Input
Amino acid sequence: MFDLARLWLPLLVLSLIWSLLSGSAENDLDVLARTSADEPANILLLTAHPDDECMFFAPTILALLERTDARRYPKLHSLCLSVGNAEGLGEVRRHELARSLDVLGIEDGRRWVVDRPDLQDNFTVEWHPQVISDVLRPYVLEHDIDIILTFDGHGVSSHPNHISLPKGAAHLLNTLPLASTKPRPRLFSLITVPLHEKYLGPIAPVSTKLALSIARLWRWHPRGAKNADAEAATVGIATETRVPVAVSGWEGYARALRAMMQHRSQLVWFRWLYVSFSRYMWVNEWVEYVEVE
Ligand SMILES: *[C@@H]1O[C@H](CO)[C@@H](O)[C@H](O)[C@H]1NC(C)=O
Output
């Protein structure tokens, strides 16, 4: 006879994993989605190359665009500072980016691509902060941007073009004249995780959701509140109070994958490996950028 009693544990584990992968999750995402006056924010995603948006930022884009609050969404804009012309495919990639943003849901009219001689896709060149700042300024002012989202000082993949983005954006914020009516925009960086955590594939969203639940339980427990940060550290969540986190479920992952498929010129074998195993297809964690001199 079929022994059901022996199956309950594996079945329980399987259904737990399934339920952990199926839904999306988030933590403190309002930090990115709302202004200090608690209005829906105007957000600008600053990227270096076509395909950054879906390879690294999809969980955040999808989570932000999912939010409705009294029928008002945060407005999400995308500015890509190059057409990715390292292999002479710039014009093809410009169109691929448009199709990818269609899939992710960033509207026409809120997305721009820049192609300048001093901001070219090149693995050996850091872009100058002053140039980035000058290019960025009109977009930030004209669209009343409250929040800038970009890479951190490690750029996820250590690409020098990525690494130059937070420096350039910080340069802009430091030089913007302070308006009396509105606080300065805030700059947030996508946290680069250590290499051994980068390629865990679907394990990343499962462990992140577990960690978020544990941290929440711990915080909710009266005696645990004080130790919440220490606990969060041991389970791998960055410990600053209010770390915005976006975790995609299956649907979000599939959407990111569909966006990536629009970048047909880029789909060489190692990118298939990337989309199969990268944490950034599932999980984004954010920290406010602080410039280190
Ligand atoms: C990248 O920059 C280096 C140094 O400026 C230059 O020698 C090289 O030709 C550039 N590569 C491309 C693809 O533009």
About this structure: Residues 19-288 form a domain with the Rossmann fold fold (CATH 3.40.50.10320). DSSP finds 13 helices and eight strands in the chain. The first strand starts at residue 25 and ends at 27. The pocket of 2-acetamido-2-deoxy-beta-D-glucopyranose is lined by residues 86, 120, 122, 124-125 (CB under 6 Å).
